[in-house]
Structures are given as structure tokens and as C-alpha cells.
Specification:
Subunit structure (chains A, B): Homodimer.
CATH topology of the largest domain in chain A: Aspartate Aminotransferase, domain 2
Largest sheet of chain A: 7 strands, mixed
Pathway (chains A, B): Amino-acid biosynthesis; L-serine biosynthesis; L-serine from 3-phospho-D-glycerate: step 2/3; Cofactor biosynthesis; pyridoxine 5'-phosphate biosynthesis; pyridoxine 5'-phosphate from D-erythrose 4-phosphate: step 3/5
Radius of gyration of chain A: 21 Å
Number of strands of chain A: 14
EC number (chains A, B): 2.6.1.52
CATH superfamily of the largest domain in chain A: Type I PLP-dependent aspartate aminotransferase-like (Major domain)
CATH architecture of the largest domain in chain A: 3-Layer(aba) Sandwich
Oligomer: homodimer
Function (chains A, B): Catalyzes the reversible conversion of 3-phosphohydroxypyruvate to phosphoserine and of 3-hydroxy-2-oxo-4-phosphonooxybutanoate to phosphohydroxythreonine.
CATH class of the largest domain in chain A: Alpha Beta
Subcellular location (chains A, B): Cytoplasm
């Protein structure tokens, strides 16, 4: 039986992506070779890489606006480091809205002093800080658009004159916003994009080349741009699945179309959390994430019954992160509305039983 | 028709690995979920990672000898940087035996002065330098065991008292040597190991912790060791295919068994190159690689005929690298002897035609 996959990441991918990827592992396009045993310099693979890069810019509405898309390795954690190495000369401002934002700050501090413009750490990150100032003489402002662990999401973004750099790992391609307000966006593939092992970096080229330090080649955005994201052997399978997922999204109608689906799923989920007296949402209402809903059982005695029902219903991956406890339903682009319906039904069944 | 796959990397993988990987992309172990859509913290994936790490040490004969195996991201190019960051305090010695060795030197020079103990660069790297001294007060000695581009391979290794660090990307697991003479071995997966996107690092723990610089988390071997190679989301599919390939190798009889096969393939290939007057080997005979045979056509007029025959015979990926020209037959572990036979037959057919 196919499960309802609420995993936080690596997470659900569209069935047609899995099918095409599975076939390509045996034989890519009737070439007699697997997609993972061809040269990354071959026409076939160069096409995959170029298509993935172009689709990323197209779907984000960033074509012809001075941006480049890269598929790198090392996850968002490596971007914490690369952002600082490529952009940090004197001082940068960071918004501390969750565990990953906090880790980004820690890594950047190796290179310079970092200013936390605001933090919700003392409230266990259950809200998104607002109303802070961003000094206009800083090198850049860094923030996390969606906090997977805590289930919070930025609904609006500050205006500022310095480069805006964001970790969009868990909500990229999920909502129609003006992506050109950001100068550097990075996102690990394993949520809305593809198999774990590649990180999409979308970067406005004119923010580069302004620091004085010598940057190691693998850490240098300019180097990767100059080599068309093929400075060294790319993670071919992760790039291929990303390309397939971007194609799937485009055929579906792009970000506007998926946003409507994501809103339906989130509305259904949160209304159950709010109306069912057995459950309580973790995140402040106005900051609730459309990607990750975090909630707890009010009565811990029901835990065993609830979890048995979840298992019975094929609900997978909704255990909460240890920092929050309870449950987390991740509702990424590829999760069907029916999976949320199945979960909500079980929650409501628990209410009628209790 | 399945091709004879002589690609230099990404390159051929065992058919049973491709089959299992393809199935797991649709459904891993009848779990109802794909191997690329389960949490890396799940029991299923932790088992894959731990098995891959254990098999790597077991096959290299390094179990219980103070080594740890890691599956990282970023390719050997990132190791050029990590080696320097983790081990370089004052000065290190590098053997310059090829393009990749040269790049490793360039990256390490960002952090300190590097001493080239010897170089074959002036001879377009057609041999392995020998008879050099390695100063015993250096931090480490770095070398490349096999030079994919030029088709040379180190047949013996110098003795020295300082840590020996090597890039073994293109010949790891291919021959029975005493791996415990090395202190740090790294290898991109895409030749003898698995899908591109992960790099195996095997490291003797006691050489770490001796530099004074602060090392960024993602660049820190100690950090990755302390997290069991899961500091952040690993490249799940590349690790899974590596685990499958290591299992395949173990079932085959391990490195001793595959070495015999590799010797047969190389003997057949080189005897054709030497006996067929139409072809000429590029690398100095005593340094010839058992993994990559480089050769040229003596008479360029035969190029078109030869390449049409190769295409007709399903021979894929034997174009030489631009630095050498001509041809390169990569004969990694997974390449069957029959593929070499097919290639050699065409070369000999060309001779009878010419």
C-alpha cells in the first residue's frame, strides 16, 4: 500500500517523478545506459542540467533579471558557509527565527561578527520576529523563510537596500511571491525539489565579487557560475529528479497553481487543529506555515490510541521534531490533498471516540 | 542494446546495483515508500548508511584499526579544501602527478605554502615521479594514486613518518594493497563506488585535532565523525548505490577477487595497444594504470573508420580527455572482461582492414 507521506525531508515526491527516475536508473531515454553511468559532460546530461537551471529561473519569474541558478552539493549547511565567504566583508544582519537560522549565524561568526536583528529563540521559536531595523551599511541581511521544525513561515518580508539572502529550503516553489525582492535564495532539494544531495542556489550576479578574501574554488559562487554549475562532477541523480519535479510543477500550472493546492491543504489541516479540542497548534496563528503544521495532543493519554490509528491509516512521518514534540504534518508541494484529508479524518475520529 | 560502457566517470555500475536502485526508487523494501522520500533519520536509512560505512572499512581491511568511514558531499574537489583546513598547520608536501593533483595543490595554497616534492607536469604527466624526499617535519604528504586523465597509476608508495593523504577517486577498491599505510583516503563515488554525489572519506582518527584554525562545521572531519556521517541530510541515493556496490563487491570475493579481474582486463587491453601497430600507448609502461588505458591512433586518417566501428560495436565513452587526445578506455571494477574483449576485437579488426 502506498503511504501518506508527511515526512519533513527527505519527503514526498510526485509519483510520475519517481517513475521516470526509476526508469532512467535502468535506461535513460533508450540510450542503453543508465542516467547515473553517463558522463556529466555528455550531451544528455548537459541538457538535464541546463533544463533544470532554466526551469528554476522560469518558475520563480526570474528569467532575464540578472539571476543565475546553480545546483550545488553540501546542503543548506554548506550555504551557511558559502554565503559568509562570498558576501561577508564587515558585518551582516541575521534574523534568528529557528534552529537553522541559528546554525547559519553560528557558521558565519567564524568569519566576522554577526548582528542578530531579532530573535524568537526565547519563545522556542513559536513566532516570526517582526518590527526590527536592518542597518543599511551592512553587507547583507539573512533570514529563513520557513522554519520546518517549528512550523512558522514569514508571510511578508522587510524592505531593505542591502542584499537580501534567504534560506528557502522548505518553502521554495510553494507560493506566488515576488522572488526578485531577494538577491540570493538557497534551498536543499529534499523538500519541494528532488532527491537529497543537491542544493539550488539562485543568485543575482551583481552582488558578487565585493569581498576581499580569497575564496576556495568549491566555495566560490562566481566559479560555479562561470562553469555552468559543472565545476566538478555534479550530483547527477539529484539534479535529474529536481529537473523532473520542476517539469511536473510547470505542467501543473506553475507556482500559482500549486499555491492554491497548498492553501487548501493548510486550511483543512489548521481548521482541524483549531476546531478539534483534543489538539493544540504550536506556532502563533499569524505565522503558521503552509508547509509544516506543528501540533500536540492536549491529553497525552490518547497518544497510544492516536498513533495506532495513524499507523492503521498509512499515515507516515508525522512525529514532531524533538525540539517541539507532538506532531508535525509536512505538506510539501507533492503531498496530495487526499493525504491531508486522511489525516484529518483520523483526528476527527479520535475526537468522536474520546 | 546494452552498451559497453568505458566512461571515465560517472561510469559503469554493476547491473544488479542498477536494478536494485531502480526498484528502491519506486518502493524501498516493500515499505510503500521510495528510498528517496524517507527520512534520513529513519531506521531504514540509518541502516543503509551504517552498512555502507562498515562495508567500506571491511573491504579495505581497516576494521578495528582506528579508522572511520564517512560519506560526504562535494566531490574530491571539496576534499582538496577539507584536507588543508583539517591538517595543514605549517607546510605540506604534494606530489604533482596530474591535473587533479595540481588542483589539490592550488586549493591548499590558499591556506599555506605548499611544497611540490616532485612533478611530471613538464612531460604532460605521462609518468609517475619517483625518488623524491618527503621532509619529516611536514604536516602531511598528499598524492593521487591513479591519474584518470593520463592513465598512470602509482604501483608503490613511499614510506614516511608523516600522515599520508591520498586521492584514490579512480582506483579505490580495485587492488589488494595494504590500505593501513595511508592515514586519509578520499574517493568520489562515481568511478568504483556508486552514483555521483557522494565522496567516501576514510580517515585515521588520531591525525585530527592538530591544527589551530577554527574549522567550519561542514568542513570539519571531527564534526562529521561525531555525527556518524549525518551532520546534515546526506545524499541518500548516492549513499544507497554505494552500499549496494560494496555489497556486490563483497559477494564477489572482495578486493582480491576484483583485482584478478582488473588485471586480466588491463593485460588484454595493453597487449593489444602494444602489439597492434596502429595504436600507441600514452603513459610510460611501468606506470600504466589498470583503471584507465590511454592511447592514440598512429595514423589520424583511420580516425573516422575506427570511430564508426566503435559506434557500430556499442563501445561507449572512450574519447580521450582533451589534455591527452586520442582514446581512453576506463576499466573500472564493474566493467566486464567481455567489454574489453569487444573493444580489442575492433582494434584488431581495424588492423586487418588497414
Amino acid at each position: 500500500m502506498k503511504k501518506h507521506n508527511f515526512n519533513a525531508g527527505p519527503s514526498i515526491l510526485p509519483q510520475e517523478v519517481l517513475l521516470k527516475a526509476s526508469e532512467a536508473v535502468m535506461d535513460y531515454n533508450n540510450s542503453g545506459l543508465s542516467v547515473i553511468e553517463i558522463s556529466h559532460r555528455s550531451k544528455d546530461f548537459v541538457e538535464i542540467m541546463e533544463k533544470a537551471r532554466a526551469l528554476a529561473l522560469e518558475l520563480l519569474g526570474l528569467e532575464g533579471k540578472g539571476y543565475k541558478a546553480l545546483f550545488l552539493q553540501g546542503g543548506a549547511s554548506t550555504q551557511f558557509l558559502m554565503v559568509a565567504l562570498n558576501l561577508l566583508e564587515k558585518r551582516a544582519g541575521y534574523l534568528n527565527s529557528g534552529t537553522w537560522a541559528d546554525k547559519a549565524i553560528k557558521e558565519a561568526r567564524i568569519y566576522d561578527d554577526i548582528y542578530e536583528v531579532a530573535s524568537s529563540k526565547n519563545a522556542n521559536y513559536n513566532y516570526i520576529p517582526k518590527g526590527y531595523d536592518i542597518p543599511s551599511d551592512y553587507d547583507y541581511f539573512h533570514f529563513t523563510t520557513n522554519n520546518t521544525i517549528f512550523g512558522t513561515q514569514m508571510k511578508s518580508f522587510p524592505k531593505c537596500d542591502i542584499p537580501m539572502v534567504c534560506d528557502m529550503s522548505s518553502d521554495i516553489f510553494s507560493r506566488a511571491i515576488d522572488y526578485s525582492q531577494f538577491d540570493l535564495i538557497y534551498a536543499g532539494a529534499q523538500k519541494n525539489l528532488g532527491a537529497a544531495g543537491t542544493t539550488l542556489v539562485v543568485i543575482k550576479e551583481d552582488i558578487l565579487g565585493k569581498v576581499s578574501r580569497k575564496i576556495p574554488s568549491m566555495m566560490d559562487y562566481k566559479m560555479h557560475i562561470s562553469k555552468g554549475s559543472m565545476f566538478n562532477t555534479p550530483p547527477v541523480f539529484a539534479v535529474y529528479t529536481s529537473m523532473l519535479t520542476l517539469e511536473w510543477l510547470k505542467n501543473l500550472g506553475g507556482i500559482e497553481a500549486i499555491e492554491k493546492e497548498n492553501e487548501k491543504k493548510a486550511r483543512l489541516m489548521y481548521s482541524e487543529i483549531d476546531l478539534n479540542p483534543l489538539f493544540k497548534g504550536f506556532a502563533t496563528k499569524e505565522d503558521r506555515s503552509n508547509m509544516n503544521a506543528t501540533f500536540t495532543l492536549e491529553n497525552e493519554n490518547l497518544k497510544e490510541t492516536f498513533e495506532a490509528m495513524l499507523k492503521e491509516g498509512g499515515i507516515n512521518g508525522i512525529n514532531g521534531h524533538r525540539s517541539v514534540g507532538g506532531y508535525r504534518a509536512s505538506m510539501y508541494n507533492a503531498l496530495p490533498l487526499d493525504s491531508v484529508k486522511a489525516l484529518v479524518e483520523i483526528m476527527s475520529e479520535l475526537e468522536s471516540k474520546a
